[in-house]
Amino acid sequence: MKKSILYLFFGITTAFCFGQKERLENRMMECIYQSFTDNGKAFKTQLSEYQKLMIEDGVLADSSGKSYRNIFKTIVELGELKKTPSKSFLEVFNDIEKPDRDKRSQCQEAISQDSSKYDFSKVIQLRQAMYTMQDSKNLELSETMSNMLTVLSDEDFELDFYKMSTFIMLEIMNTNIDSGITRKLPETIEHNYTEEHLKNAIKIHLTTKGETLIDGKIVDVKKIKSIIIDYMVTHKSESIISLNFDRETSYSSYIALQNEIVAAINQVRDQLAQKTHKTSFDKLTKAQAQEIRIVYPRNLIEGNN
To answer: pLDDT tens digits for 255-267?
Structure first.
């Protein structure tokens, strides 16, 4: 099982109790901090810096608990994130020393022995959701996130424990984890499109140098979004985006390009939602959103050389 990132931070036993006198999550974070030789000073800084990056990338609106919870809401409503972090949380974590697992486990075990003080239910459900996400190949993310929304409030996401947990859950969603800490470009994905379907596909190639070619021509990154929008408005439900990249392409270049593609799809969907329902796409009902997706599907084929 590829659970290295989870093993680093989660090890609490599955005891339950009722009647919360103080937040268990704060004590668990203290155990995590104390497992570092600097008492978590560098790790706290990295958490703060990663939060800033998430805001700059538009994944978070701000640092509030409500903004973190809205990430889960977006996945429930749209089945996907509007934007992806430009840098992996594991890459950030890899820049600092590793925590002492045994020390953390001993600390958390001591907490579990004093069960009269804490409510373990939220932590246990969160951990189970994380393990399910990592083990399942065909997980319905929206269902898992919906379950978490019934458990966690905006106030819960004000805690560092749940902010850190959000980073880890996004990491599980958006990366392949191998030997604990690596970042991989996606492998070639098989598809069922015929040659006839692919005749009208817009073909995008990302080179090792970070250059973007659309239908064989180098395109300025600032123009990618508008080109894709024009293409989708023309082809609508028959739109297919074929993204090909060299294996040596940097992950940051891949994410930057992918975000432009997603932004283009989001914009044409929003424009149609405003035209047909007088509201933005993310405020539509599930049935209304599905109508828009049929007109502007996210048909994205990815492959590598």
So the answer is: 778 878 888 998 9
Q: In angstroms, rounded to a whole number, what is the distance separating the alpha carbons of residues 248 and 185?
A: 9
Q: Is residue 195 part of a domain?
A: no
Query: Of 174, 209, 233, which marks where a domain is finished?
Result: 174
Taking the C-alpha atoms of residue 14 and residue 8, their distance in angstroms, rounded to an integer, is 17
The closest alpha carbon to 174, from 249, 81, 71, belongs to 81
The verdict on residue 233 lying in a domain is yes
Tell me if 189 is assigned to some domain: no
The mean predicted confidence, pLDDT, of the chain is 78
Q: How far apart are CA 222 and CA 260, in angstroms?
A: 9
Percent share of the chain, pLDDT over 70: 75
Cα(234)–Cα(224) distance, integer angstroms: 16
Q: Which of 26-30, 54-58, 71-75, 130-134 is predicted with the least confidence, judged by mean pLDDT?
A: 130-134
E strands present in the chain: 202-206, 212-214, 217-219, 241-245, 300-304
* 123: phi then psi, degrees, rounded to nearest 5: -65, -40
Overall domain count for the chain: 2
Give, for 269, the enclosing helix (H) or strand (E).
helix 251-277
Is 166 in contact with 7 (CB distance < 8 Å)? no
Across 117-121, 148-152, 200-204, 242-246, the highest mean pLDDT is recorded for 200-204
Q: Is residue 181 part of a domain?
A: no
- Residue-level pLDDT at 131: 61
φ, ψ of residue 153 in degrees (nearest 5): -100, 175
Residue 65 lies in domain = 4-174
Q: Which of 255, 251, 261 is nearest to 204 (CA)?
A: 261
